[in-house]
Amino acid sequence: MSPEPRLDGQDTPARARRLPVLLRCLAVLAAGALVYLSVPPRPLWWLAPIGFAVLGWVLHGRGARAGLGYGFLFGLGLMTPLLAWTGVFVGPVAWLPLSALEALLVGVPCAAVPIVARLRGGVLWAALTWVAGEFLRALFPFGGFPWGKIAFGQPEGPFLSLAALGGTPLIALAVALTGFGLGELARRAHARELAPRLVLAPVLAAVLPLVAAAGAWPLVGTDPQAGEVTVAAVQGNVPRAGLDFNAQRRAVLDNHVKRTQQLAADVRAGKVARPDLVIWPENASDIDPLRNRDAFELIDRAAKDVGVPIALGAVVVDPTDGLPRNTVILWDPQRGPVDRYTKRQLQPFGETMPWRGFFRLFTSAVDRAGRFVPGTEATVFTMGSARVALATCYEVAFDDVVRDSVRNDSNLLAIPTNNATFGRSEMTYQQLAMDRVRAVEHGRAVVVAATSGVSAIVRPDGSVAASTGLFTPEALVERVPLRTATTMADRLGAWPERAMVAAALAALVVGLVAGRRRRPAPRDVPSAAGDHVQA
After folding, report:
1. What digits encode the pLDDT tens for the residues 59-114?
2. Is residue 5 included in any domain, yes or no?
3. pLDDT in tens, 249-266
4. Which of 180, 339, 448, 524 could form a disulfide with 456 if both were Cys (CB 3.0 to 4.6 A apart)?
5. Domains identified in the chain, total number
6. Displacement of CA 27 from its chain's centroid (Å)
7. Torsions phi, psi of 464, nearest 5?
8. If you average pLDDT over residues 172-180, what whole number do you get?
9. Same domain, 213 and 245
10. What are φ and ψ of residue 465, in 5° steps?
């Protein structure tokens, strides 16, 4: 027989406790969604600090397990809509597990935030802990997936200039610190803890990153230190979007040849300036032009017609092992193919398939993933007076890959990319935001050539000089500066991030030790038998 419901109201506290937990869960989900909404194509960069403010308020005073749970929900609010493009043509089988895994990895640093936030200067340690979490996601799993870095949502805001000082980790620190500072300030105001000594730290945490960002802006140079060049980014377009993109490879090659020949005709007619170099996208020729005579002649004809070097993305099969390489070939109009760069950071579940046999148990779509072999060297193409560093598509998300390419005596950066398999999703806009951050981080103009859009030419200050629409054949022609100076971010390399991660780990150790010391000693509790036991 079920117990009678209590009429004395003593079950109300339990219900009251459950209600705030539910509200906190909804709050962190919404906070993660706010950070997502700050990411391009929306220019709402200021939503990210607000999202962190809510997260910091909810995590205040919680334990590590609660921090992990709330952080996971925050990660779901951010990652589930952010990564929706991964399921455009394969459905939720890729999208939802990836989003859940990335959300769990977001939860890991959030489990540590309540511990370090109890220390003096807690908002700073909390922000450093977030940076450490991004460092983890850039390494694990399957070589890392840094797509959701906070810096990549900030190409429009004042924090962008910090990229020239400390790269993406410094932007993440500034955004998180501003947000956690605002959250702590709001929490103390709500608790009426408004004494000057109590609000000074959160006020400084909220304001100083913005002041630092404003001070860093003059460091973003755009002057042509090695002259200027006219660049062209050719977007040939694809017959149709989808996973059967590779089945259209001859049509895609024909499209890029045709659009380059049209560019040459426009130059002869005086409609556009004559470029000094041309960038084609990744997968512009999935027919190996080094093995297929027809593809060779088509590309060679286009290069001769436009009369300048072309850097083109191609799938090249290595004769030593018979396996494909995702390659960019430098094609000279007189000498043909003279140099090549092989993509070093391959995309899991696309160009490679980790645990292929295991994942085949869930879907046969894994057999669509390639068996590409990664490259090993950062290569710079000499294209007239331009020294062009290369980072192919997915590589632009990885700090070290782009840094190694740029620091190899370059004065221009090219990003050939292929987004056709993601349709009209936000993926291409998210990637363009990364390109803009990289321009400021390394002080280089960036030429983005995409098969189906968005192609763009980005100035060294991160502004977009020209861009295309989606699924339209087009050629962008712009004059850009060649810059040889290395930014502070390039000179320091990975050391700022390493220092931040080390500081976060040290704060976590101190917080754990301090927490043990604060824990009350076990007290004696009398047992029913009259002796004593420890509780």
Report:
1. 999 999 999 999 999 999 999 999 999 888 777 877 898 999 999 999 999 999 99
2. no
3. 789 999 999 999 999 999
4. 448
5. 2
6. 25
7. -95, 115
8. 97
9. no
10. -80, -35
Q: List alpha helices for 191-248, DSSP H.
A: 196-216
User: Average pLDDT, whole number, for the chain?
Assistant: 90
Domain span at residue 400 reads 228-343+375-484
Same domain, 504 and 428: no
Q: What Cα–Cα distance (Å) separates residue 221 from each residue in 174, 216, 218, 393?
A: 21, 11, 7, 25
Could you give the CA distance from residue 155 to residue 45 in angstroms, rounded to a whole number? 8
pTM of the model: 0.90
Q: Is 271 a catalytic residue?
A: no
Q: Which of 149, 393, 426, 478 is catalytic?
A: 393
How far is residue 274's CA from residue 277's CA, in Å, rounded to a whole number? 9
Residue 455 token pair: 């192609």
Q: Is the pLDDT assigned to residue 518 strictly greater than 80? A: no
Residue 393 known to be catalytic:
yes
244 and 321 in a single domain? The answer is yes
Q: What's the rounded Cα separation, in Å, for the pair 474 and 265? A: 14
Backbone conformation region of residue 80, classed left if phi is above 0, alpha if psi is from -120 to 50, else beta: alpha
Whether residue 432 sits in one domain with residue 301 = yes
Question: Which one of the listed residues 282, 426, 474, 478 is annotated catalytic?
Answer: 282
Indicate which residue of 149, 184, 343, 478 is catalytic: 343
Q: Which of 487, 445, 453 is CA-nearest to residue 276?
A: 445
Q: What's the rounded Cα separation, in Å, for the pair 6 and 10? A: 7
Establish whether 258 is a catalytic residue. no
Q: Check whether residue 384 and residue 499 sit in a common domain.
A: no
